[in-house]
Specification:
Radius of gyration: 25 Å
Helix content: over 70%
Order of helices and strands: HHHHH
Number of helices: 5
Structural class: mainly alpha
Length: 172
């Protein structure tokens, strides 16, 4: 169960962060002056690593765990869809966003920003889908655990019957 909570937490953290990046941070990068853009980009890369590195590693570890050691409560296909979405996000990061950040760092060319923003939608939508999936998996896991615990406690006593509740009075 701890894996499901860590998975949901790290995925939802990244989902919220990527929406902030998509709607606020990346578009604002284009407004940084040409003389400051390289310095800004260097600071962005150094600081962002601390904000995204640990949760991305937790998310990847939990995703692998769920794919290769699934629980009884989570259908195997859900874990593999989640892994596929994460692979898409990581590939987009490696093949599209990292090179764009490198060009911003090397050349300070703000004309890269529209490409960065446009292709970041791959990650934004991928993490959003993962967030929905992670919540769904968490609910299924919590529900499955609750059902098992209830079954282990045994059946609940039957409610009293209506005829046995009230004293009966003889006569007319």
């Amino acid at each position: 169960m701890a894996v499901l909570f860590a998975h949901a937490f790290s995925t939802l953290y990244m989902t919220g962060l990527i929406w902030f990046v998509q709607l606020v941070h990346y578009p604002l990068t284009g407004t940084v002056g040409p003389n400051e853009l390289q310095t800004y980009q260097a600071q962005h890369m150094a600081r962002t690593s601390w904000a995204v590195g640990p949760p991305m590693l937790v998310e990847a570890a939990c995703t692998a765990w769920l794919a290769f050691m699934p629980t009884d409560d989570i259908p195997r296909w859900m874990a593999w869809v989640g892994a596929g979405l994460l692979a898409t996000v990581w590939l987009s990061t490696a093949l599209l966003q990292v090179p764009d950040h490198g060009r911003l760092l090397e050349h300070g060319d703000a004309s890269v920003v529209p490409h960065l923003v446009g292709f970041n939608w791959i990650r934004t939508l991928g993490w959003t889908a993962r967030g929905v999936l992670a919540l769904w998996m968490l609910v299924m896991g919590v529900r499955g655990t609750a059902l098992r615990e209830a079954a282990e406690q045994g059946p609940e006593p039957a409610p009293p019957t209506a005829s046995g509740d009230l004293p009966t009075h003889g006569g007319a």
